[in-house]
Amino acid sequence: MSEWHSTLESMIGIAMSLGAEKADAVWFDTTDISLSCRGGVLEGLERSESRAITLRTFVGERQAMVSSTDISLKSLKNLADSAVRMAKVAPPDALSRLASEELYAKAPPALDLCDPVEPAADWLFAQAKEAEDAALSIPGITNSEGADAGYSRSNIGLMIASDGSIRFARDYATSHASLSASVLAGSGTGMQRDYDFTTARHVSDLKAAKMIGENAAHRAIKRLHPRKAKSGTMPVLYDPRTSRQLLSALASAINGSSIVRGSSFLRGDMGKRIFAPGITIIDDPLRKRGLASKPFDGEAVATKKLQVVEDGILASWILDTRSAGALDLATTGHATRGLGSVPSPSSTNLYMEAGAASPEALMKQMGNGLFITETFGTGINTITGDYSQGVSGFLVEHGEIAAPVAEITIAGHLRDMFARMIPADDLRFDYATNAPSLLIDGMAVAGSNA
Q1: Cα separation of 20 and 13, whole Å?
Q2: Alpha helix stretches (DSSP H) within 94-187
Q3: Residues contacting 48, CB < 8 A, separation 6+
Q4: Helix (H) / strand (E) containing 116
Q5: 3-class secondary structure per residue, 201-262
Q6: Do the Cβ atoms of 153 and 31 come closer than 8 Å?
Q7: What is residue 448's predicted lDDT score, i.e. its pLDDT?
Q8: What is the pLDDT of residues 48-65, one digit of tens each?
Q9: 81 φ, ψ to 5°?
Q10: pLDDT, tens only, 81-127
């Protein structure tokens, strides 16, 4: 029997002997290594290993949860005792429950989420240095903010017990590798910064270090000598680095917890058209090597591909057991949990399907407007739908990039923005949440009045 299994089984067994009627427990076992270099010199190197456990107990309609990084037998006994005593005096909550057993993952799919070979620190440093060197070799790059590389591996085990026996006990492993570089172009007050990065489950899927450095350099150089755009109403084209934020806003607005609280501007829009016809948005936790893939959710529910928006119509909330119960619906298998937190709903690999036109074609279609490559601040309010963000990017004239722009604010309302989105054909899976370039007409732009 594996260590995670025996540890959780012991802890749950103690809790049941003390009066818990039901319980679940999670095991987190993580190894992490990260380093940074600047000017070709290693600036920092860290490696950590950690183990942690979380126990949730139920006594009637009352629940309590405790967690610890100490997995000794004495600690397990103390945790179980604390969890049961707390549950007995906690306020009753009819919505706090385990997921229905028939929903548990019976045969989780193989998603290839873990690269078991930890890269050596020397290799990570060589990758970071190569990315930085490649950036600094580009004429016009005057300084570096450094390059970072890292790798982490985790094992997550989940065990659930009720009616005196173990009902679910499975684990899965994940890994995460990353490389990034950030550099400066120009000099004095005219300096501009930009970056590039790559992240993947497997080290072999990382983009080439040289490409990362060169991309960061070219992006920084293109931003030199920016000007302000004139204030007014105009079309805006978001590149994939920024368009994904709009999809993240959707994910927040359709999160079951937000819907239950009534704190979403979309709370009354299930089954209604919120995007243009033809727009499809999917959440796919079963994507092989996906950055947010998982074979089962934080409540042991089998995960499955979910159509969130179908032909522009809102088709589903993102739900866990609690939020689903409050809405008299079934969980969508999107419970997530961390150390010290009860399950809550969250999207996984969320993406908008690509459109038919290239970004260049959409730029031609927009004529005059803005091409947004970076946003600043947190001006997205998913309670009211109001949207206002600082941005930088490029002025587009007659369908062509004309000049870099900065110190601009764009504003609108998410409901109107969603309805006018036109996706390009350049969908990439660089993040957990992804969207292609998006053209949106009629955005309010605050820049220069000159």
Answers
A1: 9
A2: 121-136
A3: 30, 31, 32, 33
A4: none
A5: CCHHHCCCHHHHHHHHHHHHHHCCCCECCECEEEEEEECHHHHHHHHHHHHHHCEHHHHHHC
A6: yes
A7: 65
A8: 999 999 999 999 999 999
A9: -60, -45
A10: 999 999 999 999 999 899 999 999 999 899 999 999 999 999 999 99
Q: Token pair 């920084």 is at which residue? A: 220
Q: Residue range 325-340: average pLDDT?
A: 94
Here the contacts of 188-191 (C-beta below 8 Å, separation 24 or greater) are 190/224, 190/225, 191/142, 191/143
Complete DSSP assignment for 295-327? SB-TTSBBP--EEEEETTEE---B--HHHHHHT
Once rounded to an integer, what is the mean pLDDT over residues 58-81?
95
Q: Identify the H or E element spanning 45.
A: strand 41-59
What tokens were used for 297? Answer: 């959710």
Would you tell me the crossing angle of helices 73-89 and 3-17 to the nearest 10 degrees? 40
Q: Using the structure block, give the residue that is written with the tokens 């950030």.
A: 182
CA gyration radius for the chain?
24
For residues 113 and 200, is the Cβ–Cβ distance under 8 A? no
Using DSSP's 3-state secondary structure scheme, residue 375 falls into strand
Helical H runs in 33-72? Answer: none
Which residues lie closer than 8 Å to 351 by C-beta, 6 or more apart? 247, 281, 282, 284, 427, 429, 433, 434, 435
Report the predicted TM-score, pTM, of the whole model to 2 decimal places: 0.95
Q: What percent of the chain has pLDDT over 70?
A: 99
What is the distance, to the nearest Å, from the Cα of residue 445 to the centroid of all Cα atoms in its chain? 28
Q: What span, in angstroms and rounded, lies between the C-alpha atoms of 208 and 132?
A: 12
Q: What angle do CA 199, 203, 304 make, to 5 degrees?
A: 65
CB 345, CB 323: distance < 8 Å: yes
2, amino acid identity = S
DSSP 362: H
Assigned token pair, 135: 């950036």
Distances (CA, A) of 1 to 7, 19, 166, 439: 10, 26, 14, 54
The CA angle 344-348-354, to the nearest 5 degrees, is 145
How much is the pLDDT for 450?
47
Residue whose tokens read 């065990």: 159
